[in-house]
Amino acid sequence: MDRIFIVYITAAHLTDATTISDHIVAEKLVACTNIIDNMKSCYFWEGKKEGSSEVVLICKTVENKLPELEKCIKRLHAYDCPCFVAWPVEYVSEDYAQWVRESVS
After folding, report:
1. Domain residues of the chain, as ranges?
2. What H or E segment, with its residue span, contains residue 87?
3. 4-103 fold
4. pTM of this prediction?
5. Are 5 and 88 in contact (CB under 8 A)?
6. For 77, which DSSP code?
7. pLDDT value at position 37?
8. C-beta of residue 55 within 8 angstroms of C-beta of residue 13
9. What is the DSSP letter of 35?
């Protein structure tokens, strides 16, 4: 059975995050997304320290959707190097796991 994964993605603006979210849910690449606005980021980019306000997308999906999801994010995303981090869920209720699997099939 396909493992459930959480995917963490950031975007520059709420409109960008909403567009990405709408697309990846409609394409059944993820079961759902949570959008968290106004997250503060601190990082180095092109050799200099930066800071910005970003939007977080937390997505729930299954392992076999990850490669296609990553390609889609790279295609839709405004960043040259978008954040795309996925990790397997250690424990999930079977009802919720079944809903995720059915939502992306």
Report:
1. 4-103
2. strand 84-88
3. Alpha-Beta Plaits (3.30.70)
4. 0.92
5. yes
6. -
7. 97
8. yes
9. E
